[in-house]
Amino acid sequence: MTITAIQIAVVGAGPAGLALALHAARLLPHASITLYDQRGAGHDVSGDPRTLALALGSVQFLERLGCWPEAAARSIEAIHVSQRPPSPGDAEVLLRATDLDQPRLGAVLSYGALVAPLQRAWEAECALHPGRLRSRWGTPVKDLKPLADGVEVDAGIAERYDLAVVAEGGVFSDQARKSLRADYGQTAWVGSVEIEGGAPGMAFERFTRHGPAALLPLPPLPSPSPVAAGEVAGRTRAALVWCVPSDDDPVRELDDDQRLAVLNTMFPARAGRLVAVSALKSFALGLNVERTLVDGRIVRIGNAAQTLHPVAGQGLNLGLRDVAELVSVLRWSDDIERALRRAEWARAGDRWLTIATTDFLARSFTWKLPGAATARGLGLAALGAMPWAQRALAQQMMFGRR
User: For residues 9 and 227, what is the distance between their CA atoms, to the nearest angstrom?
Assistant: First the structure.
């Protein structure tokens, strides 16, 4: 089958946008691809310390792209979920990769550690195929105008494309309102901690009366000194996500020592003793979701399509599954509209199940109903008693709905 050449614009060179551009460049030889991003060509993203948690399916996808920075990542080998105050019967759920016959459940790394190799791989592809691949660094897209048979991309000069994929996300507080939007009235405080006596490779999700808190295992800092790497005397590093009510924030006025003292009362003993905490940054939390991924010849992926509460850590994982499906349908179809309808249909189940689950968990912490915490504890206890349900949950977290 002969497939007609197409022109694709990718807006945003974050992890989802770069993965899309690179994957499409390799599997769609009939596609000319232009990548737009507002950051300059010489901007070094490798030092961006923001933390990303990726599910096993995402890690495997990036490995297939040849862009997984194994040395810069820390595997998640187990996830421990519990509630404070203790749930009925001290309920807890422990998901282990070995119980699922998997090498790991996922991995944690910095934003820069992931984006830098993706960008290098994309630029290498551009050098190999300069006639059909190009980057527009330092070129923000001002507007997208739907056309009868394409999209007009306005980045100072208006250009026509057969398809535009928007991958510029941003954080909830900076985003324009999408079709479905809810402010959870919660703030996430994020940073990192050092831990003595912890369990390397184990992530912790702790439900508290204020909201969920999580510890995600981090790789050691790159340094010739083991002291600077934070690995001396049995210390490990972990990313911290600490969610609290915005209107009664118990974290904002605390100093580092006070925050550390509170954190040590929150997590279970098996997490170890937290001995140092970094400066913390705060972000407003909310739901901001487009009803559809596809609008004519414009497709939105990742945070451009759905911004979720971090309680389940599924934002980028959804975006990478969007990437894989979109390229797959475009690879085998000469009809762009039909291919996009197939992608929308194929992604709907996984997308809406993840959105609904995350939204339910986030809203449950805003309920003032008596017994809400007890109900969550009973739910944990029930999940802990059903291995088949734990396996189903782990499969959803690792690979999404298939």
Answer: 46
The interaxial angle of helices 387-399 and 56-65, nearest 10 deg, is 30
Q: What is d(CA 183, CA 200) in angstroms, rounded to the nearest whole number?
A: 35
Q: For residues 87 and 270, which has the higher predicted lDDT (pLDDT)? A: 270
Contacts of 292 (CB under 8 A, 6+ apart): 344
- For residue 59, how many other CB atoms are within 10 A of its CB? 24
Distance, in Å, from the CA atom of 262 to the CA atom of 35, rounded to the nearest integer, reads 45
Strand pairing partners for 306?
289
pLDDT category at 395 given cuts 50, 70, 90 is low
Superfamily of domain 6-179+286-399: FAD/NAD(P)-binding domain (3.50.50.60)
Burial (CB < 10 A; 0-12, 13-18, 19+), residue 37, is buried
Q: Which residues contact 391 (CB under 8 A, 6 or more apart)?
A: 100
User: What is the arithmetic mean of pLDDT over 126-144?
Assistant: 95
Residue 302: pLDDT band with limits 50, 70, 90: confident
Q: 170-193, pLDDT tens digit by residue?
A: 666 566 778 888 888 899 999 999
- pLDDT of 169 > 50? The answer is yes
Matching residue, tokens 């991309």: 153
Dump pLDDT digits (tens) for 324-364: 999 999 998 888 999 999 999 999 998 888 888 888 877 77
Tell me the sheet residues that pair with 299: 165, 294
Q: How far apart are the C-alpha atoms of 311 and 133, rounded to whole Å?
A: 37
Residue 64, both tokens: 């297939």
Q: Is 4 exposed, middle or buried (0-12, 13-18, 19+ CB in 10 A)?
A: exposed
Report whether 97 contacts 78 (CB < 8 A).
yes
pTM score of the predicted model: 0.88
199 versus 66: which is more confidently predicted? 66
The one-letter amino acid code at 396 reads Q
Please give the single-letter amino acid code of residue 151: V
Q: Are 160 and 7 in contact (CB under 8 A)?
A: yes
CA-based nearest residue to 183, from 169, 172, 168: 172
List the domain boundaries for the chain. 6-179+286-399
